[in-house]
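Blackboard transcription, Thursday session:
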Amino acid sequence: MFIFLLLASVSIEAEISDPTGVFNDGNKQYEEHNYEAAINSYKGLCEEFYSPELFLNLGNSYYKVNDIPSTILYYEKALKLSPGNLNILHNLKLANKRISDKNKVNDSVRLNDWFFTWFSNTPNYWAYNSVYLFIIGSLLLILYLFSKSRKLKKLTFYTAVIALTLGIFSIVFSGFHKSRLMSHEEAVIFKPSIDLMSEPTENSSVSFVLHEGTKVKILDETELWYEIRFSDGKIGWLQQEFVETI
Amino acid sequence: MKINFKILLLFFTANIFIVTQGGAQKFTTSINTSNKSVQVGDVFKLTYSISSKDNFSITGIQRPTYEGFSFVRESNGESHQYINGRATHSHEYSIDLKANKKGTFKLTPATFIAGNTETKSSYFTVQVGASDPKLNVEPPKNSNLFTRISVSKKAAYKGEVVLVTYKIYSRYGNIALDNYDYAMIDGVWTEEITAEKNGWPTKQESINGVRYNIYTLKKEIVFPQKTGEIIIPAFDITARVNRSFFNQGSVINVKSNTQVLTVKALPTNAPISFESQVGKDYKFEVSYSTTELKTNEAIDLKIKISGKGSLKQLNAPELNFPTDFEVFDPETKNNVKISSSGLSGSKEFTYLIIPRHHGVFDIDAIEFSYFNTATEKYKTLTSEAVKINVLKGEGKDLTNTSSENKKDVELLSNEIRHIEHETELTPLNAFFFGTTNYYLALGSPLLLFILIFFIKRKTGEEKNEAELTHKNASKSALARLSKAEEHLKNNNDSEYFEELHNAIDGYLSHKFKIPVSGLNKKRIEEELTKISIDVTTITALLKVLNDCEMTRFAPLSHSDAETTLTTTKMLINKIEKHVTK
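(Written on the board underneath:)
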């Protein structure tokens, strides 16, 4: 009993009392072509909530007002939550046509994308799942202790083992997803044209130049700089203020 | 405006000789201009002559740069002269240029390559004066010979036909044309009218009381292709007049007037089907060879457009058939006549159309629009809409796209996919995983299980002990009884009774889980009645116990002792049966 109380206490106290309402407001504004208002609605929601659809819709709104770097940032965020989502990939492809740098976009669905899509539920989903499975497993084990007949003992024992194994998998998924969401390994450039330096100092030499909307992979960071890698393999340093992490 | 800029000089030393020392051969180049007074809009000829004593041929010419002029045409010629035994071989290269603006222009030298030598002409300066309208309009009236360009109309719509006639007016008895030269007209599409067998007929006409013979040199119809002013440049003739057997006659150069056409743009409200036709009396006929047929059979669709106007520029109308029809490019039959009144006749387009799928198809009316010059309005001619009934033919229906030219469905719109309406919003940074609550929630059911497991094991141990003694009660009682029996055999009566008493007490205490100290007659009676043992058995048992106690004070006989043993055995068996029941 106390376990369920505990679970109930996890539900969060948020400032936005009706997030779905705000989301629907944004959708309505989008459909009325009031994209600026839609961006405001979605953006407010983003400060406390996340979902692939929210990011996709926000990206769409930015696309409509021609803010391509933001569009790409939110499409990438959406894709991170829901890898292999064909709608997001389609839109991202269109947005990528509008930027200057030819970024190699992997639009084929990779095997691990399928894996992610399949298990793309949120970390909390898996966390709750694991708890429920553990409760079920434990109850079954207790039942096993008290059961007299051999048949029942066998049945309860094996189902308990299965439930606990699935529970352990759920724990792994939850942890895995959480770390994936928490880590920011990629970023989108927001400066129209940016010099990529060979070292993390302003007076080092320029290695190459990238333009806004381009996605880069973060390799390393100092207090103010990121070391990044462009899709063609070039590596350079840029100031953190000019990029947004995905 | 006293002197106008009239002539403005332009006389140019017609002979600038340059002697080029090139290899073995000596070349002399000279430049001549046909026109002594060049004005804006005039076309003039520059002639480069290259001569040498030896025969030669020109293998390459590099034109001068002619900024301020536009190129009209070029020509080549050569001549060989023998004068007093001296040969002169000369090549002439002429270039016609049109003066575009006023000013002084310096042409760079032209380069000629003859054999392996390169010869350059000199620079040539041309001064161009402003055009003087007066000069061009009226040729000298009393002149015996003049030329004229006349147009059928001075103002026309773009694409409307205009007849341009080039004529010679002459008072001479005979006249022979040595040379004539028409310049190209910019911004028009031209169609020359071919003369009859004997050329254009000669006419007579009086101008200001003076009789002229009029020879038509050339007639052409032009279709203006741009709006604004179109200049028909003057043409030049060189004529030899009064030639007779004794007289070589005299050579006269004459330059004609220029004409200016004002071209109006067509109104902007053109129908969609309007393309290029400007004229009048258009007719539009559409006929289908059949409107009911089987799939993969053919329909001939004939579209005949006739009228007076720019028919030559008429393109096949584009048909808008359903995709289940395969429409082949049309065959075109031209029946267009060129006459002084313009182009007239018809154009016939025959389309081969093959339905690839059965069904009843509505074919939209086909439209044709033209600009009617008579009413100065657009006019649209429409055929009737047609229903084509395609019956199922033999074999399979084909879709229009046969397998080899099948294409992937192309993405037509470059538009992003629409927003999503369903979502499950997850609070940011409210991860359940990794929190203390999570581990508690995860661990507590397991802990609960472990707790229960241990509790159960402990209680299980205690219970087992009692269970064991309970189970073995009769066994240990029987063991005691056999011990008692031994005592009996050894005539050890008091020990025998002692043992017997203990056996019964122990048995009862184990069986009913009552401590030996708590055993008394009343308790024994209660417990035994509880498990419904008949009263005789109970009294018998109590009697045995009583006897045992009695023997401590007054010993019983040996035989009596033996009977108590057997009754006790019997009683224990009896109770045992009841308990296990």
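Lecturer's comment: Chain A touches chain B through 58 residues (CB under 8 Å).
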